[in-house]
Design brief:
Blueprint: H1 4-14, H2 40-46, E1 56-57, E2 63-65, H3 69-91, H4 96-101, H5 116-132, H6 136-152, H7 161-166, H8 174-177, H9 185-188, H10 190-208, H11 212-227, H12 244-255, H13 258-269, H14 303-320, H15 323-340, H16 371-388, H17 391-405, E3 423-424, H18 445-453, E4 462-465, E5 468-471, E6 477-483, E7 486-494, E8 500-508, E9 512-519, E10 534-536, E11 551-554, E12 557-558, E13 563-564, E14 567-574, E15 578-584, E16 588-593, E17 603-608, E18 611-616, E19 627-628, E20 635-640, E21 647-659, E22 665-676, E23 688-689, E24 692-693, H19 696-702
Parallel strand pairs: 5-9
Antiparallel strand pairs: 1-4, 2-6, 3-23, 4-5, 6-7, 7-8, 8-15, 9-14, 10-16, 11-12, 11-15, 13-14, 16-17, 17-18, 17-24, 18-22, 18-23, 19-21, 20-21, 21-22
Helix pairs in contact: 1-3, 2-12, 3-5, 3-18, 5-10, 5-18, 10-11, 10-12, 12-13, 13-14, 14-15, 14-16, 16-17
Length: 714
């Protein structure tokens, strides 16, 4: 593992960090996070807001995450991943592109045509980190970087380094950018890049109070608002890669300038609508540009783009009351969760086009499950909760956090998965040419997306609506929540996800009546995921009522468990020192998939609490791709403090199937050992399986030549 202190010291030199420590700056009232709506103060002061999400998240600046599972990862992100990503952006020319475009140095554009966006994403993550941990050295580096970006901007606000460097002269990547501005929005990413610029600009402004990057963003957005629209002389078109919609909403929240919100809705409303566009042409399903957004019922095409679009629709709907948007994303959510989502919360079945497959098309070895798609799925589900207030959305969010997302970054913080399959034969180079984790990619959208996501996790723990306080995630630490009638400090003590015992201590400023809404996770309610895509097999622990064994106490007295939308509700007048204790049994669960999921027929997956488990070859003497786990095999747990940062391993007596020279199958008993899925591939490359055959017939069928999953199909 990289020494955090040393790592940052080394990178400080590499980035030319210098200067004396400055005085701590005053934090702004709200902190922008890319997942959490903020910036409302200025917007309401300037123009007023017609509406917003019914539920308000508590921002990370009001939540302190103490030592524990997520604290380790947030700190690693701050101390390792952010400086590491900046270093890689320096080494690969992503930052130099701005200096070249500004005429400060000579050179050619390096990397993909959309590489500007990677820099913006790391800036956003660094700004979020600054707001939580002031660091004058990092801030000075960001100031110098922002100056380069500002210098690369055209006088009219245009910012796209590859075009600035090459102009309209032919160049290698011109087939993706188009010959002139906005000529090829289908692939150019001109608007996508700007969405990430806007998010970074608001983040840095709200973390530091400095307008430097915000002014760059506002100069650009005013240009785009002039170019695109329905007035005479304006252009009707949409971005090929959605993202600007989210950024525009954040600019609106920060400035109160309603034109930005209207522009976001313009880009959404014209998606799938050919009238008025060049040659009346739409792009197609890959871009979610095949139908108007309000008519879409099935998630298709590029998974990241889709989930960004659904998030943007939620934002616009919350602010405008656009009910047809909400109806559409409700339908799409049911389609994804009920037919197209992996057990890990990952989305995007196909390497080809990084896309959703058909309904129930969920292969394991060739699963794509881009880390960016997991992040986008978390974004979307957080917003769905803010709209509807139902725990099912947080259940999906939690599943993504602990599995589909977390697998994407190593515990050391400097190696990554781009795709996240649920099976590996240790030969197929699924990770952009590698069998295991890589330190960087030519297209490194995932490593830079991670750094802006992790600081936001603390902002998903609590939320409020009037005098309702939601506890959505379990993390040790403190939060300060501004309810309608007074402020409440809440302290949470838990070892989650090792166990599900949660102690809450509440401290309102004065005795205060309000309703505490404490999420009882879907896995505790007998619901693996909302819908019927995955379900738990009955077990001895689950044969009776699923909630049997759940204990809820208020000030040491048993409190009746009453669920509303997945939340245990406690209404009372709370006083300082009041204590709530929640204890949920966390047995090992067997999961089976809908029979329509061909890849998982006859197979079982193992979960404990929010964690999906897997067989990794390093822990097992026999080939894990020949393992069998009968339904009657007893499964035991053991805490391993020195394994993979401290995990609970699961063991059971299963079988391993072999074939002799004549092709006859045989079974022999074997001990099977499983670890959390997020922790695999930290001890070298090897085979891995999430879905394990329940009997030998499944293996026989899978090993017929015509039935084998083509792991390398792209």
């Amino acid at each position: 593992m990289i020494c955090h202190v040393r790592c940052f010291a080394d990178l400080s030199s590499a980035f030319s960090f210098h200067g004396k420590y400055m005085c701590r700056y005053k934090f702004w009232l709200t902190l922008f996070f890319w997942l959490i709506p903020t910036g409302l103060l200025l917007a309401e002061q300037q123009q007023g807001n017609a509406g917003d999400y019914p539920i308000t998240p508590v921002p990370p600046t009001s939540v302190q995450v103490d030592d524990g599972f997520w604290k380790q990862r947030i700190e690693t992100n701050r101390k390792v991943t952010i400086p590491y990503d900046f270093q890689k952006c320096e080494e690969t020319g992503r930052i130099a592109n701005f200096a070249i475009a500004a005429g400060q140095i000579d050179g050619k554009h390096q990397g993909f045509w959309f590489n500007d966006s990677d820099v913006f994403k790391v800036i956003e993550g660094a700004a979020a980190s600054l707001a939580l941990h002031p660091d004058p050295v990092l801030e000075k580096y960001l100031d110098e970087l922002i100056a380069k970006i500002a210098a690369a901007q055209h006088e009219d606000g245009y910012l796209y380094t590859i075009r600035t460097i090459h102009g309209e002269k032919p160049f290698r990547l011109q087939r993706y950018t188009g010959k002139t501005r906005w000529a090829y929005l289908e692939h150019s990413h001109e608007l996508y890049n700007m969405g990430h610029l806007y998010e970074a600009a608001v983040a840095y402004y709200e973390a530091t109070g400095k307008r430097t990057l915000l002014d760059v963003a506002l100069k650009n957005v005013d240009l785009i608002d002039q170019v695109f629209g329905e007035d005479e002389g304006q252009r009707i078109d949409v971005p090929g890669h959605q993202e600007i919609e989210i950024g525009l909403v954040k600019l609106y929240r920060t400035t109160g300038e309603r034109r930005y919100l209207e522009l976001a809705q313009f880009f959404l409303d014209h998606r799938g609508v050919p009238e008025g566009r060049k040659e009346n042409r739409i792009y197609g399903e890959y871009w979610q540009d095949h139908q108007p957004v309000t008519k879409q019922t099935e998630a298709v095409g590029h998974a990241v783009r889709a989930a960004y679009m659904y998030s943007g629709m939620a934002d616009v709907a919350a602010l405008t009351g656009q009910k047809d948007y909400i109806d559409a994303i409700d339908r799409l959510w049911e389609n994804v969760v009920g037919k197209k989502m992996y057990l890990t919360g990952g989305i995007g079945a196909r390497h080809h086009d990084e896309a959703f497959g058909e309904n129930y098309e969920l292969p394991n070895g060739s699963a794509y499950n881009e880390t960016c798609a997991a992040i986008a799925n978390a974004m979307w589900n957080q917003r769905m909760f803010l709209l509807h207030g139902e725990s099912q959305y947080i259940d999906v969010l939690e599943r993504v956090l602990y599995n589909g997302f977390l697998a994407g970054i190593s515990m050391e913080g400097n190696t990554f998965f781009y795709p996240n399959p649920l099976s590996s034969n240790s030969e197929y180079r699924f990770n952009k040419g590698a069998v295991g984790r890589q330190g960087w990619f030519d297209c490194s959208c995932c490593p830079v997306n991670i750094v802006r996501f992790l600081p936001a996790v603390a902002g998903m723990v609590y939320a409020h609506k009037e005098n309702n306080l939601y506890v959505n995630l379990f993390m040790p630490g403190k939060g300060t929540i501004a309810l309608q009638d007074g402020d409440v400090e809440i302290t949470q003590d838990t070892r989650y996800p090792l166990d599900a015992k949660v102690d809450l201590t509440l401290a309102p400023d004065a005795p205060l009546p309000f309703t505490l809404r404490l999420r009882i996770p879907g896995w505790a309610r007998g619901e693996c995921v909302p819908g019927n895509l995955y379900r738990y097999l009955p077990s001895k622990e689950a044969q009776n009522e699923w909630l049997h064994g759940v204990k809820l106490l208020v000030n040491g007295q048993t409190f009746p468990l009453k669920l509303e939308s997945g939340y245990a509700t406690i209404h009372r007048t709370w006083k300082k020192g009041d204590r709530v204790e929640l204890e949920i049994p966390m047995p090992v669960r067997r999961v089976v998939a809908d029979e329509k999921v061909v890849a998982d027929r006859g197979r079982v997956a193992i979960e404990r609490g929010p964690l999906v488990y897997c067989l990794e070859q390093v822990d097992n003497q026999q080939p894990v791709d020949r393992a069998i786990l009968p339904d009657n095999a007893a499964l035991t747990t053991q805490f391993e403090p020195d394994l993979l940062g401290g995990v609970i391993a699961i063991e059971g007596q299963g079988d391993v199937a072999t074939q002799d020279e004549s092709g006859r199958w045989q079974q022999q008993q074997a001990t099977l050992r499983l670890i959390p899925y997020y922790a695999w591939n930290h001890r070298g490359n090897g085979k891995m399986e999430v879905w394990i055959p329940r009997g030998i017939e499944t293996l026989k069928q899978a090993n017929k030549p015509e039935e084998k999953e083509t792991a390398g199909s792209t």
